[in-house]
Fold this sequence. Notes:
Layout (H helix, E strand, L loop, with lengths): L16 H4 L4 H4 L4 H9 L28 H4 L2 H12 L19 E3 L6 E5 L5 H13 L3 E3 L8 E4 L6 H9 L3 E2 L2 H9 L5 E2 L7 H12 L7 H10 L7 E4 L8 H10 L3 E2 L13 E5 L5 H8 L5 E3 H10 L16 E4 L5 E6 L5 E5 L1 E2 L9 E5 L5 E5 L9 E2 L7 E6 L2 E5 L1 E4 L3 H8 L35 H4 L3 E2 L7 E6 L7 E6 L4 E7 L2 H13 L1 H17 L4 H15 L6 E6 L5 E2 L12 E7 L2 E6 L8 E6 L4 E4 L5 E6 L10 E6 L5 H7 L5 H19 L8 H12 L1
Parallel strand pairs: 2-3, 2-4, 4-5, 7-8, 7-9, 9-10, 22-24
Antiparallel strand pairs: 1-6, 11-12, 12-13, 14-15, 15-16, 17-20, 18-19, 20-30, 21-22, 22-25, 23-24, 25-32, 26-31, 27-30, 27-32, 28-29, 28-31
Helix pairs in contact: 6-8, 7-11, 7-13, 16-21, 17-18, 17-20
Amino acid sequence: MGDGEPTLLLPDEDCPATQLDEEDETNDIGQGDYGKTVAKAADFPSPPATPQPRKRKGPPSTGLPDTPDKACRRSPRLRELQKLQAQQPEVPAPAPRRHQASTGGPIVAEPPLRPVIALSGVEIEANLLNAARRLVESLGGEITNTWTMQATHLVACRLRRTFKVMCALCRGVPIVRPAFIKRCVQEARVPEVRNQDLLRDIIGQQIFAKRFLGRSQSYSLGDVLQRAQDGPLLANFCVHVLPEVTAMERPKLRALVEAAGGQWREELPTTAGSTGSLLVFADASSPAASVAQAASKAAGVYQLEALLSAACTQDLRLQAFQMPVRRPFRRHVSKNGLPVMLMASPGGRTRFRSTWLLACGGLGGSLAFLRGPRGVALRARARQDEAPVLQHFIADSPLLRGTKVGGDDAPTVFLVAPPSEQLTKYVLEDPAGPFKGTLEWPERLFDDVDGKNEPDVADHAPGSWKKWSFQFSKREPFMLKADWHSVHGWGEKFDIFVPRKNAVVPVRQAPPRVLALIEAFRKVNTVCWQQITSGLQELQEQKPDDILRCRLLKMLIEEFQERGFFGAIEAQAGPARRKEMHWHRDGATGLLHLGITLSGRRRLQLRARSEDDSWTQELWMDAGHVYLSSPFLFEHSITYAAESSDSGPTLALMCRFGFLDEEDALWVNHFRGRDMLEVVELISGCLRNATDAGELRMPTLSEVRAVERELAT
């Protein structure tokens, strides 16, 4: 090719500028010879239709060249990009990482040298648990289902007031979710505990807040653990629990006290000594004499609830749980040889009164006659018989969860009172009642029969049983049943709803002493019933236009105002052989239920979830046993034991709501919506609060006798 021949210039394939900014090439091409040359190039044959594929050279970073060349200098856009690239600092490529550190908030606990992980009511997949167990054991630790003072973690799925949770809170041990076990296996180590690893139970925290802190405060698990880590709850305190306390096993109480940094005292000190560091805990069933003796050697005696609540909040509040001390009278001799009785005055001082006793037995009897210096006869009453106080059947779980109501597990309480031999004997020996003297038990109670009874409803029992309307039950032919009412103002006969007949029928008034017992029980617990009534009225005012809601609330309010609660009594006699009843749930009359066992022995099983997630609870009831609950809210079954040699078949009283309108009674049995849930929460909450305060109790024998005399006039 000679110098005079035209030269064809093609774009440089290796120049990225032609690939980035193709439209900018026309702006830099000259209009002289280059334009002519291009025009002549059109005479050449066109290239093939399918061009060869271009190969990318070097890393595809941003399309910018490493060194400038002729084509790059032709693109002003390229030059601008190069200037911007030169001004930015080089960012090193991130190094590959295997385990990224957790970013779930501040560290709650550092990785332990010897991990000991305790499990509390959690179910972990077997393969995952075995892998975690091998990992922890390789580090010299262990995974256990029991609490130990060496525990470094507690794995739980719910925040409940259980023994393990309280010990973990007292020790400042982090309570983590089950996902923490999976994290340990994934990272092949036991890592630090961060906020995201802590147990998250919104419902449990709300329950703790309402139960221990009040409605205006919130419960934070992290804050409670921080308080425990700042210092032990019972540091510099010695703790003694009276032996009559049965709410929790003594080994567990001791472990709880030691977890909180306290010193356990099995016995009270012989002398008062330094009382400021000695804490004594008791409950409502503790004898007054034991409480008074403990109070003389300690700064005060407090309810056990103070210790359990403090374990959950790490805040020791004793003033609200201090138990009243009833100091007995002490007898001394004055200088003139006359007996002197020391009596505590309201101001705390001691008043002296010279007396001499005329009654035999001194103050040991029920009443004693005293004569003063002027010969005036005085009548003094000795210490009153102690009233049986209702307590939670499961101390660690005051609220149980029963069947579904309004889409949620209904909260309920199950309260029991220690047997009262005096009250039981008083009711059985009622001269006007059906149980006086030797009972003639019908032969049918001893027969091994089952199923529904064939005879007519009028198949009454013989003898004295018929006088009090006892009939053989159609559903349980091995039992006698009678229906009474327990409201004095309703007269000798009154029409109420009878659950076993599913209708409103006339029933007679209960025997005098049974009537006096129920009326006295209502009277001594008036405050609790007033609180329930006020709460129902407040619920009614919230939605006055809701017809069904107002119907339910009006029905219950009238029951409390007319004293119809515990107004319907079903008296049961038999069987004489061992019988196990089918599982069932009572109707709405069992929304508030008082059960009294007069003789025999029976077992109650109920299906209700406690705080440790156990479902089936069991209670044996002997003569004098009393329970208060809501069998409308849980499935239950009764097993009657064999005939006792001294008491015969079982005698029991079932006291329920005495509904007056048959249509309302049938309708409310199937009403289990959100409105019923609010009612259930109100009733259970009031019963629980009264029980925690030690205010819910059975009447004393003297109180029942006083009511009987009042009703007789």
